[in-house]
Design a protein that fits this description.
heterodimer, A: alpha/beta, Rossmann fold, 6-stranded mixed sheet, 17 helices, 22 strands, globular, B: mainly alpha, ABC transporter involved in vitamin B12 uptake, BtuC, 0% strand
Chain lengths: 515, 369
């Protein structure tokens, strides 16, 4: 910026930001002050208005009313370019990187500075080396981004923002893709940025991270700021209550498991992707009635492929999966046939696989079960039965609003997930596969979903739970399998599991006391 | 990319197409003024030519019938996520099937010929769609490319057949002999006449009612059966389809067979209803108009019906126009049709955002459904 900024002025000040999307009042007179040289947490449930607010700050949306000040100066942020010029950088949850470009090319993208690349590349290289020295942000500049681990890709995003002169960095759910150790690394890096006078807004729904990494925290609910507190003066319980607006159970109440007969057996399972790379290597485990087995691991270490192979969505190259004595692999049963044998599946990526976004709730409530006799009449779909079935599921699983005809995309993530869960659980399966049951789901719904899973376990069903949220695994699972690079590193009984121990196994360190 | 602005249903399906059509007509009017004719007179001539008399209406609906068949075909494939550019070729080969039945069995009573002609037309169109579908499902060969190529193959094949095999002996022009009168589709004026309703004699025939029936069947199939459900899931979200135990490859083949069968029914109208013989290039571009019709009709049978009537009116009104206005020739009419396709198809979203803004301001608390 041309003007010398006032060092004491807030890094960012929002006054009375108001934004409506049609009938939705996304931001209600939001005021927010980010002190320079601080890490500020922004938390709230899905739909609380965090993303809208940050999109306004980054120039994606324009506020209907309100003012934005950057270091004491009023600014009009009508495009991301304007935000960048004002010294605001944003790291999105889904990286905005060109995977087959090098790190250097990615950083340069959008800031080439002229038609010829050579000069810009040289300047960017010098600048990045300086940044790397200043902040300890070491990244191999000539590596292809797609080949870097996720943690480093995120670092590239941060470098990109800093290279464009960001003084204020917005990180949107930055740890969703990281292992606990990688997350800690990220927080150390943010602390170094803070020490250099940069400011950070950390948008997250993980209370643990807010407590660990931030100086102050702002809680949003239903578009409005409901609290702004110094982190040291609050607790996870208080924050959760402020977010939801009522008391919540952070831990799952459940009795000890009473495992019965073995229902699902996996032996020597190998899954290769299209390029022939082994994604699951010689996996073997049993799943018994009345227990929840958790599969922990950093995203992308073979859990997804394991889940899909068992569900019948991809063909293993080797091994055996048996359900109640039938070998699903040898018989070549597809997802539909497996469902009929009592294998239900809540997929990891709800919007990609679990629902059809433009369908109504009731049409989504029969996905995978659309050829059941109960939904047919005289060769046609029995619309009345489908509607009634959906309404019943909606009331039993507290899906709001309870309108079967409403498009599924118009429900919040939590309500979508409750409907998917209802669909799969109400099919009365023997084995339920669950991937990331609470991804993109707000705290109130998380509590409900966890209770449903425990209830299903207690009714004698077997549950295989894949989650990248360690807290969730620790809260729900009776036994824990840890995956790293396609291998099951070991099995830990819940009683013996600690976050540190699982974290080490997730990072590929074999511990001796594996059962 | 910002997502397309949402409009209320009535605006989405009523106002927006009307505004698009209006824009196309305005631009057409400007061009007509440029070549020295009165746009207003031209519009009146066209409207009169398309709807001004029983005869005009008969011709308009006759053309519309062909477009309904091909439009439905394109729409069924679209719901399965497939862009079938090959309706033209499928209509051509389907018509061959219909024509062969009529040539071979013309001495049978009409009510015996009709079901076989319908089946043969559907089978021909489906057969011509099968190979591109199978290549897409098994090999990933893009259906847009293969169906375009199959249009050319169909054209070459039919030329060869008509010149060398089906040609009436002792005749120069590449056409088959005429069908026996039993294989003529009864004209609608005849049918109405039997009911005591007088109607001018036009090529409009029973196939129009078959097309209406096909529209209802397509609606029932796509929205009211489990197969239609599977088809839409596969079209909208192949990953969800696989998750649900629906095999997208099967849906691809099934949807294309149905699509081809619908397009292949064009011969019922064009050959049995009007030409009464197999001749060169009888689909005459109806397969391509079907794409525009499906696009404009939002791939819904009701929309397709309306869009087909519009395009039928453009063809019929257009020929009236070129007949009555010396400066407006055949090509000028094609330009007008092209503008309608451009505004209603390719540019259909141009007015969406301004309309949404306009409606949004007038009605701030809109329903979000």
């Amino acid at each position: 910026m041309a003007l010398t900024p006032d060092p004491a002025a807030p890094a960012l000040e929002l006054r009375g930001i108001d934004k409506r999307f049609g009938a939705v009042h996304a931001n209600r007179a939001v005021s927010l002050t980010i002190a320079p040289g601080t890490i500020h947490g922004l938390i709230g449930e899905n739909g609380a208005g965090k993303s809208t607010l940050m999109n306004i700050v980054y120039g994606f949306h324009r506020a209907d009313a309100g003012e934005i000040y950057v270091r004491g100066r009023r600014v009009e942020l009508d495009s991301p370019q304007a935000a960048i010029a004002a010294g605001i950088g944003m790291v999105h949850q889904h990286f905005m990187l060109v995977e087959n470009f090098t790190v250097l090319e990615n950083v340069l993208l959008g800031a080439e500075g002229g038609a010829r690349l050579a000069g810009g590349l040289a300047r960017a290289r010098a600048g990045l080396e300086q940044l790397a020295r200043d902040y300890g942000l070491e990244v191999p500049l000539d590596a292809i981004v797609g080949e870097l681990p996720v943690g480093l890709q995120q670092r590239v995003e941060i470098l990109k923002a800093l290279h464009r002169g960001a003084e204020l960095l917005i990180l949107d759910e930055p740890t969703a893709v990281l292992a606990p150790q990688e997350a800690d690394q990220l927080f150390r890096m943010l602390a170094r940025l803070r020490a250099q006078g940069k400011s950070v807004i950390l948008v997250t729904h993980k209370l643990r991270e807010v407590m660990a990494a931030t100086d102050r925290v702002t809680v949003m609910r239903q578009g409005a700021v409901v609290a702004e507190i110094a982190t040291a003066a609050t607790s996870p319980r208080e924050l959760a209550e402020r977010m939801v607006g009522r008391a919540v159970l952070l831990s799952v109440e459940k009795g000890p498991a009473q495992p019965g007969a073995t229902l699902l057996t996996v032996r020597d399972l190998e899954v290769r992707d299209r390029r022939g790379v082994a994604r699951v290597k010689s996996a073997a485990f049993d799943l018994r009635a009345g227990e929840i087995v958790g599969v922990a691991g950093v995203a992308g270490n073979g859990q997804s492929e394991l889940l899909e192979a068992i569900a019948g969505l991809c063909l293993p190259t080797r091994g055996e999966i048996s359900l109640g004595g039938r070998d699903l692999v040898r018989e070549g049963l597809d997802a539909r046939a497996r469902r009929r044998l009592g294998l239900a599946h809540v997929p990891e990526d709800r919007l990609r696989m679990g629902v059809v976004a433009s369908f109504s709730a009731e049409d989504n409530a029969i996905l995978g079960y659309h050829d059941l006799a109960a939904y047919q009449r005289g060769g046609f779909l029995h619309r009345a039965a489908i509607s009634a079935g959906c309404a019943r599921k909606m009331s039993a699983y507290d899906v709001r609003p309870p309108e079967p005809r409403r498009r599924i995309a118009a429900f919040s993530g939590g309500n979508q997930q409750k409907l998917v869960l209802a669909r799969e659980i109400e099919s009365e399966p023997r084995v339920l596969l669950v991937g990331q049951p609470t991804r993109g789901v707000d705290i109130g719904a998380i509590e409900f979903i966890h209770r449903q899973l425990v209830a299903l376990r207690d009714s004698g069903k077997a549950i295989l739970l894949v989650s990248v949220e360690l807290e969730e695994i620790l809260g729900l699972a009776d036994r824990i399998l840890v995956m790293h690079d396609g291998e099951i590193m070991g099995e830990v009984a819940r009683a013996d599991a600690t976050e540190e121990r699982l974290g080490l196994m997730m990072a590929g360190v074999r511990t001796e006391a594996t059962a | 990319m910002s997502p397309a602005a949402k409009l209320p249903r009535w605006a989405e399906f009523g106002l927006l197409p009307a505004v698009n059509l209006l824009a196309a007509l305005l631009l057409s009017g400007a061009i007509i003024r440029l070549i020295g004719e009165s746009p207003w007179a031209a519009l009146r001539l066209m409207a009169d030519g398309a709807f001004g008399s029983q005869e005009a209406i008969g011709y308009t609906l006759f053309y519309a019938t062909s477009f309904i068949f091909t439009g439905l075909g394109v729409a069924v494939a679209y719901h399965a996520g497939l862009f079938n550019i090959g309706a033209e070729g499928q209509a051509y080969i389907g018509g061959l099937g219909t024509g062969l039945v009529c040539l071979a069995l013309g001495h049978w009573p009409f009510w015996a010929v009709l079901p076989l002609a319908v089946l043969a037309g559907a089978a021909g169109g489906a057969a011509w769609a099968f190979l591109p579908a199978w290549l897409q499902a098994r090999r990933g060969s893009h259906i847009v490319i293969t169906t375009i190529m199959f249009n050319f193959i169909a054209s070459a094949l039919m030329t060869w057949l008509l010149v060398n095999v089906l040609i009436r002996p002792g005749q120069q022009s590449p056409e088959s002999r005429e069908f026996a009168p039993n294989a003529f589709m009864p004209g609608l004026h005849t049918l109405l006449g039997r009911l005591g309703i007088p109607f001018a004699a036009t090529p409009l025939n029973l196939a129009f009612l078959l097309a209406l029936a096909a529209s209802v069947l397509v609606w029932l199939f796509v929205w009211r059966t489990r197969w239609g459900y599977a088809l839409r899931v596969a079209g909208l979200n192949p990953a969800a389809a696989r998750y649900a135990g629906i095999r997208p490859e099967r849906v691809t083949v099934g949807a294309m067979l149905l699509s081809g069968a619908l397009a292949g029914s064009l011969g019922l109208n064009e050959l049995m209803g009007s030409q009464h013989r197999i001749l060169l290039d009888f689909p005459g571009g109806a397969g391509f108009v079907g794409i525009a019709v499906a696009l404009m009709g939002r791939n819904h049978p009701v929309g397709i019906l309306l869009a087909s009537v519009l395009f039928g009116a453009l063809v019929q009104g257009g020929s009236q126009l070129s007949f009555d206005m010396p400066h407006v020739n055949r090509d000028m009419v094609v330009v007008i049709q092209g503008l309608v396709i451009l505004f209603c198809g390719a540019l259909e979203n141009v007015f969406r955002t301004p309309l949404a803004a306009l409606l949004g301001q007038r009605k701030p608390v809109g329903s979000d459904r």
